[in-house]
Amino acid sequence: MQITIHSKGIQQGPFPAEQVKQLLQSRKISPTDLGWAPGMAEWKPLSTFVELQGGVTPPTMSSFKSSASVSSATSRTEPLAIWSLVLGIVSLVGCSVGGFLVGIPAVICGHLGRSKIRKDSQLSGAGLALAGLITGYLGIATLPLLAAIALPAITGALERGKATQTLNNMKMIHLAVQQAQLDGTTMGSSELGFPATAKLKSKADLKAMLVSNEYLTADDLDHLGFEEISVANVSDEDPGDTLFLRATSPSGKTVIVFRKGGDGAIYRTGQNVYAPDPPRTPAFLD
Length: 286
Description:
alpha+beta; Dna Ligase, domain 1; 7 helices; rod-shaped
């Protein structure tokens, strides 16, 4: 029998059956290669030729083990890639500080996993590691993003709280001066009352009047932030809407005022804090 061989894309022969057997035994051709002989309707693997049975060498068990080992190795997923994805998802769900802290190890595991996968062709999971990196970086970005959103609100709340506290402090100072005015009127003393009536030249004189007559102590005035408050040189006869005390917030965005009649208010810088219209702008004590 003459057999024509088709091996590795090349057609060879025809060869006698014995010669084909020798080629098979020497592994120059494979049992899976196709062969054709006169009278055959189609090409068939050489392993199916009865005339060649003695020349076909079955594969060894070691080759099966080796193939299975390679297959197993190529399907092994890098654990760091899995950890990166898990931590990345947790960082997105956690958000805020928790997301930031979990996002960092997610990114580290992702980079280490991708590095190991690049060095070892038998490892898989590059896509998992990439997904872990993306979710990890997003988790890390949530903290600065939330901070950027919350910081203006927090700053505004703190400033409003400070302004309200200053307004309350002004009320305490005003009540003390108002009591001095009442006492001055009752006793007929020209040394007690609002600054212009008591002929006070400075804030130090006002402080001395309040402390020496025991309306407030020096510690009280320090606690009330007296040194940061401007005092207008108003008299007992000035209208109640005349501005008496004034202060500006540390940021300069807010102005706090207290009027002689006992009304206080918080304004935005630039608003007219004087009343009525046209405003009376009193001189302030040094």
